[in-house]
Amino acid sequence: MPPNAERREILSDAAVQVLARHSSRGLTHRALDVEAGVPRGTASNFFPTRDAIVDAILVRIGERLAPDAEVHATLAARQPGRELFADYMKDIVQRLTSDRDAALALFELRLEATRRPHVEAAISAWLREGLAADVAFNARMGLPCGQHEISLFHYAINGFIFDQITVAVDPSADRNQVIDDFVERLIPRTN
């Protein structure tokens, strides 16, 4: 990786961490420099505005939460159906809960979107592109959900992730069982 690309990645990761740990109020160029361990002024060279930081955060979160190619290859080899759909959902939950900073940063951006037009536009586009990609993926893989069901799963999974990375309503809940229950209730069985 070229040095500038590596430095940009380090600063983007620092931005995700600062946002997750200190909320949007703590998201400053100086905080990024400190978190990344780089000389003062480095972050502003890469991200001249706060909006540029937000854009970099969204790109980096997408990279960090991308599916593992091996996991998806194993899943793709299976027969399409409700069980496979549930296992894809479990993979999503695993990725989001394993990278708590990325998940928290996403929630922070959604809150910040209620106050800042650029953040609202950026996160809205990011979320809608993700939904469209999920719908296209399901169709391509022959999975049993259309846009409406995928939207319902986004609502359910977002609430579940929020619960898992903050304060759990039921700390004893089994993640896999929760996903299986979502699938059972949201995807009608076909005979």
Low-confidence stretches: none
How much of the sequence lies in strands comes to under 5%
- How many strand elements? 0
Largest sheet entry:
none
Q: Indicate how many domains the architecture comprises.
A: 2
Mass-distribution shape: elongated
SSE order: HHHHHHHHHH
Helical content band: over 70%
Structural class: mainly alpha
Mean pLDDT: 94
Task: Please give the count of helices.
Answer: 10
Radius of gyration: 18 Å
Structure in words:
With about 190 residues, the protein is mainly alpha-helical. It has 2 domains: about 5-60, Arc Repressor Mutant, subunit A, CATH 1.10.10.60; about 65-185, no CATH class. The chain is built from 10 helices and no strands. The relative contact order is 0.11. The mean pLDDT is about 95.
How are the SSEs ordered, and which strands pair?
Blueprint: H1 3-22, H2 29-36, H3 42-46, H4 50-64, H5 69-76, H6 82-98, H7 100-112, H8 117-141, H9 147-165, H10 175-186
Task: State the gist of this model.
Helix content is 74%, strand content 0%. The protein is mainly α. It has two domains: 59 residues, Orthogonal Bundle (Arc Repressor Mutant, subunit A), CATH 1.10.10.60; 121 residues, no CATH class.
